[in-house]
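User: Here's a structure from my thesis project, written as structure tokens. My advisor, Dr. K., wants to see whether a designed sequence matches the one we expressed. Can you design one independently, without my sequence as a hint?
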């Protein structure tokens, strides 16, 4: 292998010296010794039928939407996916290069990207959208970079504590080494007003999630007014299903809108692949990371689709690139396009209403239980936090024996809440499921 790597021994020695280590093995010292260089012990050779049988056996060990009712959300949600989504994903028209640089052979994919962008603009109320982001976390981090590039000399990003904890970690990973100050969430108990009070002339952007990680909805309009008065941008992280019922962030003055596209026709899939929604105002389009598909006409006057505005990418202007994104989430984008078209405005609103009403029913019933306390103030959408009389891990273990996947343990991210569970309710949680969940909570908490 080393014969095909261009780095010489002198190159490697110089790089090791630059990072302050003597040999490559030192780079792995953070990995525990017992798992650092494992011996790979492969099982005996199996025939195809035997292998399939073993894989099914292993699969059945997992809790899934068929074996359990699911009340776990925290960024990935158990929504219904129509059968047509998967059927259309398999059509040959879309089996083109994942990044459709050559329009002559990629018209199917390019047209779907164009339609997806149109749908996301309509859903978010923004001017421009793209299909280039891996998930909600990376879309948010890219939005922060875009805000810094758009506001020039401002070097502070304010992020509220109720933005998804993992999103905030990814944000800091993206920003490290750039001389950017990320603040606002050091105290996870801080209120939104506490964070907004830190806005000053050096603030490039404020990041707000609505509904936030604890489920609460926020009015973006006064937040947008406050950050705009200081010359900064508002980045809103949203749940696309909630936009079927509540005000579009574009109408409230958001400059950049990001979100996780998984609720739009993408199954849970053990955590991915997912889709990062990214949209912005037209005035910032030339600083948008990724690429945009546009419509044009050919020499015969027929409509054709091409990639446009990709001059920010590293493969064209690497030194001046505003992002290093070099992919399209083409398959996931297609799934979300099919889902959104199938549902339409009425369907999306119906799904949002079912989530809203069933979540509020569940919250009201759980609040009646001795030892349980509702922590998320109204208004909330499909998630809410409750204080529990026992550790959440203990409750979830008991719930699993009843065929229920319980909520997310908030103690690891918001320790000031004590024993607290984040519960998600979607259109797939029937009243019977909710009643069984409440009864199991009551029993397990005794």
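Assistant: Designed independently from the structure alone:
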């Amino acid at each position: 292998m080393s014969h095909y790597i261009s780095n010489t021994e002198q190159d490697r020695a110089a790089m090791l010296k630059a990072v302050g280590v003597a040999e490559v093995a030192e780079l792995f010292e953070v990995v525990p010794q017992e798992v650092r260089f494992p011996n790979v012990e492969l099982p005996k050779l199996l025939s195809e039928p035997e292998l399939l049988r073993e894989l099914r056996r292993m699969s059945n060990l997992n809790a899934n939407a068929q074996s359990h009712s699911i009340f776990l959300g925290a960024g990935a949600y158990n929504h219904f996916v129509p059968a047509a989504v998967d059927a259309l994903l398999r059509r040959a028209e879309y089996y083109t290069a994942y990044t459709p640089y050559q329009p002559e052979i990629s018209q199917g994919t390019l047209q779907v990207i164009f339609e997806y962008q149109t749908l996301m603009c309509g859903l978010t109320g923004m001017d421009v959208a793209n299909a280039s982001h891996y998930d909600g976390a990376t879309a948010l981090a890219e939005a922060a970079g875009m805000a810094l590039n758009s506001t020039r000399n401002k070097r502070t990003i304010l992020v509220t504590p109720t933005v998804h904890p993992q999103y905030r970690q990814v944000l800091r990973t993206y920003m490290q080494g750039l001389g950017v100050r990320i603040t606002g969430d050091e105290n996870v108990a801080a209120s939104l007003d506490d964070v907004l009070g830190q806005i000053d002339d050096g603030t490039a952007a404020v990041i707000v999630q609505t509904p936030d990680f604890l489920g609460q909805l926020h009015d973006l309009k006064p937040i947008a007014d406050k950050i705009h008065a200081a010359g900064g941008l508002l980045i809103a992280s949203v749940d696309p299903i909630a936009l079927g019922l509540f005000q579009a962030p574009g109408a409230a003055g958001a400059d950049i809108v990001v979100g996780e596209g998984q609720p739009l026709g993408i199954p849970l899939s053990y955590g991915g692949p997912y889709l990062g929604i990214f949209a912005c105002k037209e005035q910032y389009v030339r600083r948008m990371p990724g690429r945009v598909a546009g419509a044009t006409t050919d020499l015969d006057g027929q409509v054709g689709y091409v990639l446009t505005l990709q001059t920010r990418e590293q493969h064209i202007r690497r030194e001046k690139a505003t992002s290093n994104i070099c992919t399209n989430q083409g398959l996931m984008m297609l799934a979300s396009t099919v889902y959104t078209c199938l549902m339409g405005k009425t369907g999306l609103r119906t799904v949002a209403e079912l989530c809203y009403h069933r979540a509020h029913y569940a919250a009201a019933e759980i609040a009646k239980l001795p030892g349980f306390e509702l922590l998320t103030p109204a208004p909330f959408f499909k998630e809410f936090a409750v204080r529990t009389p026992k550790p959440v891990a203990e409750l979830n273990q008991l719930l699993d024996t009843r065929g229920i996947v319980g909520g997310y343990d908030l103690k690891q991210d918001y320790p000031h809440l004590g024993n607290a569970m984040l519960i998600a309710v979607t259109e797939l949680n029937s009243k019977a499921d909710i009643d069984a969940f409440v009864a199991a909570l009551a029993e397990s908490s005794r």
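When you compare it with your expressed construct, this may help: The chain has two domains: 69-79+348-444, 83-340.
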